[in-house]
Design goal:
The protein has 405 residues and is an alpha/beta fold. The chain has helices spanning 4-9, 28-40, 65-81, 93-98, 130-139, 164-175, 197-205, 221-228, 272-275, 287-290, 293-303, 319-328, 330-336, 386-395, and strands at 16-20, 23-27, 52-55, 84-86, 107-110, 124-127, 141-145, 148-155, 183-189, 214-217, 247-252, 259-261, 269-271, 282-286, 311-315, 340-341, 362-365, 380-383. Helix 6 packs parallel to helix 7 (197-205) and helix 11 (293-303) packs parallel to helix 14. The chain starts with a helix and ends in a 10-residue tail after the last helix.
Length: 405
């Protein structure tokens, strides 16, 4: 019986499928690289500019004059070509695309490894390099080998202070950083459990941290209700009774506890209680993993009426998340607590600006990667949920969110 990857790609596992791309997107980093390759091809024209997006998020606003020059070049190219363009402040490409621009059943290619985030919407979404993106601009299509699928079965209900980020860290640790290489993860939920879209986006986002090609959810009532916010409609995707999975793993949410990924590997985790008291120099709440409104609201609920004891940088994932947080009072709560709120985008995640760590400093981040030197040369940082990050911000050291809720 077919997996969701086989259904969307229209071919069996292991075979190659030439697919027209429904949506293709890049950011200010990979976009300029794709343009260089496109120019080397003779600038033959964009075959379907209406399906292509250029989204500024990685170094937005620009951090140097050189960056600004490159962004101006790409900005002019994108607008003249008729592509969709999102300038600084629009937000992270994955979240921007998730806001009504991707639908179930579509084939979505992004020039960024975390493009798998959009599998939360029932699309086959994966990341490619800049040369592949240039090829998609020119041809409107690409080829894919249909991946084997690993099922992740989820049941139960999250306890106090526990988040879907904790589950994401657990499944990456279970699989290992290469345990799902060129495979698709299919998330399956029992009838008694309902995972909200923001949780699905977080779980799909980290699929690539286990080496996966995609992280897929079947579109259901929650998908329809989410997309209806953006005026979109969709059909539900019904799973077959017995799709063939090459591996199956199970997680019971009732048994889950807050976890941290420890320096410098995403797949090496420890219970927060084991590391409580570890001093921190900085907290970062944001990124395509945990910068959505719901993440900011959970952090604000913990910080309400309190003060942070360590510098705390907050970066909303998109303009829509920023606006929602502003009008709801969430941003006011964060600022009153002493947080520094930056414009929507990737923030310090890639180690370019807005909160890069210094040598020897220790940080805690809600991002998806803690590789050595990524967010500051010579620094170390832990990965956590927004709730753990907020509790730790108050303490100035790693703290268990269950003790402040």
């Amino acid at each position: 019986m077919e997996t969701l990857s086989e259904k969307i790609l229209g071919a069996q596992v292991g075979s190659f499928s030439d697919k027209q791309i429904d949506k293709a997107f890049c950011h200010d980093g990979t976009g300029i690289q794709a343009k260089i390759i496109y120019d080397e091809m003779g600038a033959p024209g964009i075959v379907n500019p209406g399906a292509c997006y250029v989204i500024y998020d990685h170094i937005a606003p620009a951090n140097t004059s050189q960056t600004a020059d490159l962004q101006r070049e790409l900005r002019e190219f994108a607008t003249k070509s008729g592509m969709h363009f999102s300038d600084i402040g629009g937000g992270i490409c994955h979240q921007y695309m998730a806001e009504g621009r991707v639908l179930p059943g579509e084939v979505v290619i992004g020039a960024d490894s975390h493009s798998c985030t959009l599998g939360a919407l029932g699309a086959f979404a994966t990341g490619v390099g800049a040369s592949d993106m240039a090829g998609i601009w020119v041809s409107g299509e690409t080829w894919l080998r249909v991946p084997e699928s690993i099922s992740i079965y989820i049941s139960g209900t999250l306890g106090k202070g526990v988040e879907y980020k904790d589950l994401a860290l657990c499944y990456v640790a279970e699989l290992g950083m290469d345990g799902a290489t060129y495979k698709s993860l299919e998330f399956r939920v029992d009838s008694a459990s309902e995972i909200p879209m923001e949780g699905r986006l977080t779980l799909s986002n980290m699929a690539v941290e286990a080496g996966a090609k995609a992280g897929l959810w079947y579109a259901d009532r929650i998908t329809r209700e989410y997309l209806s916010r953006y005026g979109q409609t969709c059909q539900e995707q019904k799973p077959n009774n017995e799709p063939f999975y090459c591996e199956e793993i199970w997680f019971e949410l009732d048994d889950l506890e807050p976890f941290l990924a420890v320096p410098h590997r995403v797949d090496t985790i420890k219970n927060v209680s084991e590391l409580a008291g570890t001093p921190l120099d900085q907290i970062f709440i944001g990124t395509c993993t945990n910068g959505r409104y719901e993440d900011l609201a959970r952090a604000a609920a913990i910080l309400d009426g309190k003060k942070v004891a360590v510098r705390t940088v907050v970066v909303p994932a998109s303009q829509a998340d920023y606006l929602h947080a502003a009008t709801s009072g969430v941003l006011a709560t964060l600022v009153a607590a002493g947080c520094t709120v930056c414009p929507p985008g990737c923030g310090p995640c890639l180690g370019a600006h807005m909160g890069v760590l210094g040598e020897g400093e220790v940080g805690l981040s809600t991002a998806n990667r803690n590789f050595r030197n990524r967010m500051g040369v010579g620094a170390s940082y832990y990965l956590s949920s927004p709730s753990t990050a907020a509790a730790s911000a108050i303490a100035g050291e790693i703290a268990d969110p269950r003790e402040v809720l």
